[in-house]
Amino acid sequence: VKTSLCLLWVSSILSAPVNKERQKLLLISFDGFRWDYDRDVDTPNLDKMAKDGVKALYVTPPYLTVTSPTHFTLLTGRYIENHGVIHNMWFNTATTEKKPYYPTQFVNDWWDNGTLPIWITAQRQGLKAGSLHFPGTASSYQGQVAMVREIEPPLYNYKNETVWQDNTDKVMGWFKYQDLDFVSMYFGEPDGTGHKYGPDSPERREMVKQVDRTVGYIRQSAELHGLDNSLNIIITADHGMSTVYRNNQVEAITLYKIPGFSFKDLSFHLVDYGPSGMLLPKPGLLEKVYNALKGAHPHLHVYKKEEMPARLHFAKNDRILPIILWADPGYVINGVLQSNKGEHGFDNENMDMKPFFRAVGPAFRRNLEVEPFETVNIYPLMCHILGIQPEVNDGHLTATKHMLVTSEAPQGQVTITFCLHPKSLSSLLQDSNGIDHYVLQ
Ligand SMILES: *[C@@H]1O[C@H](CO)[C@@H](O)[C@H](O)[C@H]1NC(C)=O
Ligand SMILES: *[C@@H]1O[C@H](CO)[C@@H](O)[C@H](O)[C@H]1NC(C)=O
Ligand SMILES: [Zn+2]
């Protein structure tokens, strides 16, 4: 009894918010902005932002590297197998029904699967949160929604720069006139252009210039709204983009042509979706399907769910199907045929899948380039800046906290008398966030 009492007391100290001044935070995602997109384009505004704040060389998204799952990781700090939004597409294996990205935004049960996004957590702790177009915005979570929100209409033009500027001013107005503390904001580019023309195309470089101009516009709008001293801005993305080799350059992966494999052996499949696929074989046919595909193509990886590499954190969820496929960079998995020149959805170790990361504002240090980190760690950083208690998550504040100005760190030392064996004490300290020094007595 004594030990557990002490533990309770310690954890409430370790997790207490340390910053006293209220900080606002804007989380921005430019879909598919690969970490190195600023290397072959002049990006004066992104460069200025790095000088005024923090830049990571790159960040590592969770696997599966597609839009809705990775964005929900930004909002929750959980790996995809833990938050449950395992794909852009909602599906029902019993009826074989599937919904594309946009209609899936409105399938409440798909999103509200036990993990709370930061908007809801912030609001439960007395803050005000908003969201514009960010994946997950349309859903409610345990009956609650972001208090100010805007969802893009169907057939939305994700590329219009004038609309990007109007949306920016709208969000700054939310901070200024409705006194919101946190807003997430989404731009659908340069993903669309990267898919259509490929990441090495002149069209993609032009779109990066548009993103850069918009970054300048965002910072200017924040200044004009008088938000410089309170607003922190994080700009990142959900995944990168990789060139798909043309069918006459390489031997394409085309499932229906693989000897011994038949779609008739499946009750349900999700393929023709870039380099990733999931299959549900009919009862009794798992081994047959698996054996037909395993080793069938040198650039096709075939895994039973329970054999998935643990580092991918993409297995332990009932929604993930029994056979998981992915292709090496350059390749996609064709059920029949695909035509994009750029794709994502590859292994998150692949450099082409890494997004960029920039942050600026009163909480952040200036002119600092940090080492790469996983995007699960952005969530605890955001909670820390906002001064809210995070939900259970897979991130660690220790991975991102060094970006913050020292006044954000705990003041002075915390002295704790432990009633624990030293061994359990050291594991406790490794797991704890938000504390710099330990004095053992
Ligand atoms: C998550 O969704 C699955 C169905 O896909 C359902 O069985 C499960 O109960 C849901 N869990 C929660 C906590 O909503
Ligand atoms: C972009 O949006 C503005 C403002 O809504 C509109 O006037 C303009 O026609 C749009 N441009 C394109 C190319 O769609
Ligand atoms: Zn995306």
TrEMBL record:
CDD domains named in the record: Enpp
Gene3D superfamilies: 3.30.1360.180, Alkaline Phosphatase, subunit A (3.40.720.10)
Keyword ATP-binding: no
Signal peptide region: 1-15
Keywords: Signal
UniProt keyword annotation of ATP-binding present: no
Highest taxon listed in the record's lineage: Eukaryota
InterPro entries: Alkaline_phosphatase_core_sf (IPR017850), Phosphodiest/P_Trfase (IPR002591)
Protein name: Uncharacterized protein
